[in-house]
Amino acid sequence: MEPFGPDDAPQVRFVIHPIPSQPDVEITCAAPAVDRREVTSSNGESELRWVIEAMVDVGGRQWPIELTLTNRESMNYRMLLGRTAIRDGIVVNPADSYVQGKIGYKVYSDYPRQKPVKRPLRIAILTREPTNYSSKRLKKAAEDRGHVAEMINTARCSMGINTLSPAIYYDGRRLPRFDAVIPRIGASMTNYGMAVIRQFAMTGAYILNPAAAIGASRDKLYAHQLLARAGIGMPSTAFAHSPKDTKTLIELVGGAPLVVKLLESTQGRGVVLADTKKAAESVIDAFRGLEANFIVQEFVKEAGGADIRCFVVGGKVVAAMKRQASADEFRSNLHRGGTAEAVKITPEERSTAVKAAKAMGLSVAGVDLLRSNSGPKILEVNSSPGLEGIERTSEKDVAGIIIEYMESQVQTVSLPRTSRRKGALKASDAPENTELKVIEASGKASEEAGE
């Protein structure tokens, strides 16, 4: 879907494939938008959809109904007629089929077949560090594939929240519509960054990692609860608010040595190893004195100061590396002087990493796991993983893989070529302030445009 037109009278351009078995039959349509609504599907997933109005013809009676636009190509039925669209006097008998007669596809027999024409995407890279390795690599990978990639500083964005015309401003200038957004949100900007991401989603942009998934990964307590609910192995973890529970916390993770982590720690900061019970009590009391939120976690000694970073893109581990802490350090982060080398991971480790990213709802994730005597244990799931270490260690074009995955997810509009059915209105020919009607292929605006 592609919104356009003035703010007070927005329109939406969309593509339909009326014949399920023939995706080369493609019709570009446009219609005035009457609303935008959040719709929850039968599997519990919510989506903000554009709403248009069209006429329905049943049993010789016609009346207008509202249609929400979404991609249903992977579903059994391209269109569902809800109960609110059914008028009085009409009876639905679930035991009968084709009561109105079976509709054929002959009307499209002379409609021009065509291959989908992919257009360049306009991509926003949300980052406050446009010159760092990851940001530059993503921009170059996008441009190498013919796309336009722009660096957007999250902190300089402001939002105009409106039902039909949500807007994002950058230093006071309204941003154009982006096809896709790659969030690279720093920990200090998590809350505001999530708001900006949600606003981009309202404009119809595809978000590589949704706001809710980023928020879940940044909250270490919630992240571990999600992992536990999904049955994914991780070090024993404990959390409590009362200072009276210090001894209980230590016992819940099997005693010292143990690790104390701030809930919003990144790159190894705010992570302390307590070798003894007394040291653990002192660290926990000190964190409580600072009114800091933290978790206490089992120390996996057999890991030997090493962890495995699995880079997950679109439900697949595309690269992996082993990070080893320096001799006097237990944290293996490269920012802490750790070293990295290529590693071959086991099928169990691969499956665990994919499940962890899925549990968070992340399309792109850096999943850190430990090799323990009882199998892989998830240490952390990073929603903005760095590319420098993983690309140099694995020698893989991870940035390119990310862009290729994003291309497969973004629904592009392919406008029909010059050969057209007589009477069809070409959406691109009309000025944006002109009211466009649904393109008619058979004289009736009854195309399967959505739910």
Automatic annotation (TrEMBL):
Kindly list the positions annotated as binding Mg(2+) 1. D368, E380
Q: Which residues bind Mn(2+) 1?
A: D368, E380
Q: Which residues bind ATP?
A: K261, E298, F299, D307, R331, S332, N333
The record lists Mg(2+) 2 as bound by: E380, N382
Q: Which UniProt keywords apply?
A: ATP-binding, Ligase, Magnesium, Manganese, Metal-binding, Nucleotide-binding, Protein biosynthesis
Q: Which of this chain's residues are annotated to bind Mn(2+) 2?
A: E380, N382
Q: Quote one Gene Ontology molecular function term.
A: metal ion binding
In this chain the ATP-grasp domain maps to: 224-407
Q: Which residues cross the membrane?
A: none
Identify the cofactor(s).
Answer: Mn(2+); Mg(2+)
Gene Ontology CC: one annotated term: cytoplasm
Q: Which domain of life is it from?
A: Bacteria
Entry EC number(s): 6.3.2.-
What's a GO biological-process term for it?
A: translation
Identify the HAMAP family for this entry. RimK (MF_01552)
PANTHER family for this protein: RIBOSOMAL PROTEIN BS6--L-GLUTAMATE LIGASE (PTHR21621:SF7), RIBOSOMAL PROTEIN S6 MODIFICATION PROTEIN (PTHR21621)
Protein name, UniProt field: Probable alpha-L-glutamate ligase
This chain's source organism reads Glycocaulis alkaliphilus
